[in-house]
# Entry
Amino acid sequence: MLRTSAIFATLGALLAAAPAAQAAPDPQAIHRRILELDSHVDVLLPDASGRTATSQADLDQMTCGGIDAVVLAVAVGPGPRDPAGVAAARIEADRKLALIKRFVADHPQRVGLALSASDVERLHREGKTAVLIGFQNARSIGQDLSQIDVLYREGVRIFAFNHAGHNAFSDSSRPGEEPASVNGGLSALGRAAVARLNDLGVLIDVSQLSDEALAQTLQLTRAPVVATHSAARALIDNARNLSDAQLDVIKANGGVVQVRPFAAYIHRQDAASLARIAPIRARYGLPPAAKSPSDGADTLPTDKHDAFVAEIRQAQSRGTLSEYVDHIDHIARRIGWDHVGIGTDFNHGSGIVGFDSEADAPNVTAELVRRGYSEAQIAGIWGGSFLRVLRAAQAARAK
# Structure
């Protein structure tokens, strides 16, 4: 009996001395501690009646979701490249730029304009949402290289050459009705623009470039690049996504790929969805079958474009948070977790079950925790890696 008691006493002492079991990571606590940055959100303009569509990324949603920094994009879609088309595109871009500045000015206690990675971090410490200004589609500047300097003075710090459709600077991964290439990748103007962006310290966004234009940009740039809203072509075969070979080159450049929750590029439609989508596409004069349900949307006039996108969103199956993080996983395994991040493309067709607005951002953190990512890795994915390449681009500016 004494021997048994001694054994139990010894076991008790050992258990008391043993370290407590490590608590499971708390996704909410991690989300509160780290800096969350969304690298691409579109700016919504009011329609002819003065109404503005419901945003997926207003200030209250960002606050609710813990988003600490956002890149708001001065973006235009495809259209004519003649003088009248360029002028109309520039008016649209200027209106969006003015809206971004008004948004910052209207909320001085909650929002601040960031011109550098250090500004983002400072504003975060002050408890404010940092707003960076991005630019997308050089169609709005025609063939005027000097406008890059003008945009820089206006606060633009991230620059993407393309949207759907080619322009005078570069070829797009989505040429629409045009030939696959009109510039051979980058035009001479585009090559000069890479150099000028490097000189200014502007971070080059390779989203939506054609394969050839992307390869040439990576050969020419002396700073890391970003793809602010992209995904993995190995999972969904679409020219809008990046191939494994492209991911490898972006890693070699030191860049980062930001993944967007855009159903058309991260999710395969089932037969029932395709049956709903085909007649809608036909009604708008688009081929009923396409790789993506929204392919060709950007060739439609603005009034038809918005109606078409709304109908397609209702008809398609939307994709899930798990499918979204599958793309983050693939890129992280291929080129490293410090080369992948998050850029939603909200207000331009993005949104999936579980991540349909900035308010849902904590769900992404929870899924990353569930998959075994550490807090340091999640901090990199949610903003640290983007700030790294922004800082590197600014460090490479001409002295």
